[in-house]
Amino acid sequence: MRVLTRKFLQRQGLSTVLAVIALFTATVSYATSVQVNGLFSGSAVVTIDGKQRLLKQGMTSAEGVKLISATSKQAVLEFNGERHTLGISQQISSGFQKAEIQQTRIPVGRGGHYFTSGQVNGRRVDFLIDTGATHLAFNKQTAIDLGINFRAGKASSASTANGVVPIFIVNLESVSVGGVTVHNVSASVHLDGSPSIALLGNSFLKQVDMSTENGVLLLSTSR
């Protein structure tokens, strides 16, 4: 009888341990999608699985994302056992859950406008989101810096605040903002000095879904 009782207690003890482990595993959450929305020295604003968090250096979020370091240009984040270096508006998703939607969140900037960094044909550029612009728009120097052969495009003209200016209409292989990428996007290259900052116009915006949430602009598109 004593032997049976001891075995029973041992089994009960093992069952309790397994139950505690199962409960702990069920309650721990792991981030599957992380995007950097704001960068500062020693801190970063990140969106983790759709929830915006302010992390300070050395701090770990409820989702298990730890900010290792941050500057005004990039953040080093650790989650799911790996470290990742991300710039503003950049996003990364873990292999545990493949996102079906590409998306990026852009906080409102100065003057109520939305500014974001992105890439054109793989090269970095800063954008002002402009729903009133027909195309993406660059000045001549920005186009040169991006390696755009604009003179091979279609010559045209556009009415601006400075009057009618000559432009070239070109086709861009890809335009990316955060996790959102659109291919075959038309753009206009202005031969004067305007616009001073590249405009992210409707040739890109009409190919994505746009919404706002507490002052944050959400851009998304299906993969």
Counted by DSSP, the helix tally is 3
CATH fourth-tier homologous superfamily of the largest domain: Acid Proteases
CATH topology of the largest domain: Cathepsin D, subunit A, domain 1
Helix content estimate: 10-25%
Radius of gyration: 24 Å
Record field, number of beta strands: 17
The low-confidence runs, each spanning 5 or more residues with pLDDT under 50, are 1-9, 17-28
Mean pLDDT across all amino acids: 83
Structure characteristics:
223 residues; SH3 type barrels; Cathepsin D, subunit A, domain 1; 3 helices; 17 strands; disordered N terminus
How would you describe the overall organization of this protein?
There is one protein chain. With 223 residues, the protein is an alpha+beta fold. It has two domains: 33-99, Roll (SH3 type barrels), CATH 2.30.30; 110-207, Acid Proteases (Cathepsin D, subunit A, domain 1). Helix content is 16%, strand content 50%. It has helices at 2-27, 140-145, 202-205, and strands spanning 33-40, 43-48, 51-56, 66-70, 74-79, 82-87, 91-93, 101-107, 115-120, 123-129, 136-139, 154-160, 163-177, 180-190, 198-200, 209-213, 216-222. The chain is elongated, with a radius of gyration of 24 Å. Mean pLDDT is 83; it is low at 1-9 and 17-28.
